[in-house]
Design goal:
Rna Polymerase Sigma Factor, Chain: A, DNA-binding, 2 domains, RNA_pol_sigma-70_dom, about 180 residues, mainly alpha, Tscrpt_reg_LuxR_C, 9 helices
Length: about 180
């Protein structure tokens, strides 16, 4: 009971100092109230990131409020401002969503050009046609997770040859994709 009374006293004395013009205590007031304002806003908005932003806005409004000394019920004032800010946030979000939905209608059943150009089948075909048969086999084995030693055993070659062919294939594919992207 004593600890709780002490905290309330601290908040009360911080508030009195702030209301009398001592802006240096604002950081401590912010620390005391941001969490509870965020919790309140989460209940209204349902998103923690947005609620944290709204809670911060409420406290910034307090800092900018020129008649802080006229506030009779400090916590009541904070939570009333939080309620209003939540309503404003919800209204703006709904309005933006409505505008977006009315002004932007994505075409259904149509992939964007990028997705068509870079579908996995197209990429595999491009790689297959850009590399010779042996390099394509090495590339496939590499993509499946085999290391150079294992690939060398599978294709009956040396590790060094596999490493060199992978490097050459990588450079060739970089060039092909660069030209395609232009």
């Amino acid at each position: 009971m004593y600890i709780s009374a002490k905290k309330d006293e601290d908040r009360e004395s911080l508030w009195r100092r702030f209301a009398s013009g001592d802006k240096s205590v604002f950081g401590r007031l912010y620390t005391h109230y941001h969490r509870s304002l965020t919790a309140y806003c989460i209940g209204r908005i349902g998103n923690i990131e947005h609620a944290e932003n709204v809670a911060s806005e409420v406290l910034i409004k307090l800092l900018q409020y020129e008649k802080a000394n006229e506030i009779e019920n400090f916590e009541g004032w904070l939570f009333q401002v939080a309620k209003n800010e939540c309503i404003t946030f919800i209204t703006k979000t709904a309005r933006r969503k409505k505008l977006l939905n009315s002004n932007y209608k994505p075409e259904l059943n149509r992939l964007p050009d990028v997705e068509i150009r870079f579908s996995m089948e197209n990429i595999d075909h491009l790689i297959r046609t850009s590399l010779d048969e042996k390099d394509y086999k090495i590339w496939q084995l590499h993509q499946q997770g085999y290391d150079n030693r294992e690939i060398a055993e599978i294709i009956d070659s040396s590790e060094k040859t596999v490493a060199n062919r992978k490097s050459a294939a990588r450079n060739k594919l970089k060039s092909v994709f660069k030209k395609l992207n232009e």
